[in-house]
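Our preliminary data section would be incomplete without showing what the modeling component actually yields. Below, a chain of 255 amino acids is followed by its predicted structure, encoded as tokens that our downstream tools consume directly.
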Amino acid sequence: MKTLLALLGLAGAMCFAQQNSAYDMKGMNMPGHDMSQMGGQDSTEDSDAGAHAMHSMEGHHMDMGPHMKMTALRAPQPGDAEKARQVAETARGVMEKYKDYHVALNEGFKIFHPEVPQKQYHFTNYRFAMEAAFKFNPEHPTSLLYEKNGDDYRLVGVMYTAPKRFTEDDLNQRIPLSVAQWHEHVNFCKAPEGRKQEMLGPNPKFGLRGSITTQAECDAAGGEFHPVVFNWMVHLYPLEKDAAQIWSVDRQHAD
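Predicted structure:
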């Protein structure tokens, strides 16, 4: 594992930001955004949560239930549509660059849990993930979203992330909330050791499809409760024809 401290040491200017957001670094793990790859220690717990999140989303419509927190859709403001259009246009250029997944791999993107069968695979750039903790650069998505096509991968979208400490006003500065709805995964009860498979079966108690949604319930079941397990994230599909499909909430949940 490469150390996060080594990366932070590259620029003294980042020290202040680190002090103000150190707790966010511990919560940066997410599907396609496993910051344990950058940490000084193995983070099996975070990796398990990421793999489980992808399994939970696979083939399921994740509505705004007890394990999903969505930003509120705001009334349109002047300039919102143009700002979102510019983000989508930039993302379209990113997709053209990385249409061949070999290019993405050669430029530092890593496939998140390639051993787990998925409808959509997150190719994550951990340097871009770090950058997203401090500033928004639409040319640097945290993850590229590919669908498996035989032995090949077809690029269908991108994912941007933001620190979990962000308010909705902060997110609105990145992408207007009148157009995009960000989401994060909440109320996660990790299964006790030796019972992880219980997160994946029918009618689970644990995990992001589990019936347990509170600290008290999780403690009583011997689990480990996490109010938020990943940072804010938003998927977009820049090759679609209209804004509703580019920023489709239904599609990002299903994927």
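DSSP finds ten helices and eight strands in the chain. The first strand starts at residue 68 and ends at 70. Preliminary results of this kind motivate Aim 1 of the renewal.
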